Amino acid sequence: MNDQSPHTPSRRKVLRTTAAAAGTGLGIGAIGVPSAQAATPSAAPAEQAPESPAEGADTPKRRGATMAGVPFGVRSTVRVGIVGFGNRGAGMIGHFLSHPWVRVNAVCDPVRDKAERAAAAVVAAGQPAPAVYANGESDYEKLCARTDLDLVYVATPWETHFPIARAAMLNGKHVGVECPVAMRLDELWELVDLSEQTRRHCMQLENCCYGRNEMRVLRMAHAGKFGRLLHGAGAYNHDLRGLMFSPTYYEGPWRRLWHTQLRGDLYPNHGFGPVANYMDVNRGDRAVSISSFGTPALGLAEYREEHMPSGDPSWKETYIGSDRTISLVQTAQGRVIRLEHDVSTPHPYSRINSLGGTRGVFEDYPARIYLEPDHKDDEWADFSAYAGEFDHWLWKEHANPPGGHGGMDYIMVYRLMQCMKLGLPPDFDVYDAATWTAPVPLSHASIKAKGAPQEIPDFTRGEWRKARSGVDSAKPA
Fold first, then answer.
1. 85-119 pLDDT per residue, tens
2. Structure pTM?
3. Can you name the residues that pair with 106 across neighbouring β-strands?
4. What angle do CA 277, 197, 77 make, to 5 degrees?
């Protein structure tokens, strides 16, 4: 097995994407190209970025123009196709249906009952009945080939994210993918290349970037409240043992099976994305290398011994995934980001979400802050005191958003649909998707190499030196 490009167990057979895309007549040369209008940067980087020590001849040659700052085309209606209606997709469809300028024209899931329930939800929202694709594992190919879709939203098992995103772009669609966007380094590069060649955005729909605390810290960082930024931390520490062994929560054991394949951080995006935004990664700084360490894999086996009957299929599994991984990411400006992942042991939920600089520090779970000259005596202060001045305009405009995860899901969908309707650049792009996901294969490789640093590719091919807008965006007129 290639340590940086591990293959995965899968209940799905999803490798027929290329043939379907070729059959549509929408080859790369046939796809329209939107104008590459530059975005207005929301804030300059904290300091002039030095030359990246990890940049060099190993970076593949660009096959198309950059997608950094490229706006969507203006449209009166955003037409969406949704693939995957497990827990995530079923919970997200309502956010698309809540906006009058959005139409869900197609739904897809190999479990027909789930696809038909999604179609019924579309009709119940007052929209025409969508097309239903539920004829096997690769029926998403037909959805992607439709001519009445602007965006394909993907909420399926991780191993299917890459082929579905690939099919969407090859068929001329923008694509938004749940975390992580792919599981292998070569797949990340292919998504970058396809986005540039097809002129279609491929976005990691990282909802935690739209959390109220995260957006407030982001605006404070850009306003200089933390001084010059030095370090940050993010995590996905969430006890999922019961859910991973549940016979009904996931559609099959796909998530648990990844713990039989990889030793590294399987889900870095929730922690990495927000901190990368604070530090303007890909917008004035960039992630250069990652060093990872992992504990023994004991938690899932112990849980199985205590809770699963002797004949359960899980007894045939051997878990190698570290119960806790700890990674250190170095940036071109010398900053350090700590990432953690632990879904196999008892632990209260935490994404850590910390940021420190020369003037103070923020730490979440619970939220607390210490800044000079605002505070003194080395005592934590009330983070809510900064809400009025620094809450993002999205949270001021939608003070009590509906839905799960504290409203961040709604905010994320609203903002993406707004950008697509008004013809704005997306808040994050394929370079962010690839960067935030790179720790999946690279942490595995680093742990295998006893913590040796692994180069994080410059997916932007040098564009990271240019300041540009991101999640800390200006409110549209």
1. 999 999 999 999 999 999 999 999 999 999 999 99
2. 0.89
3. 81, 131
4. 70
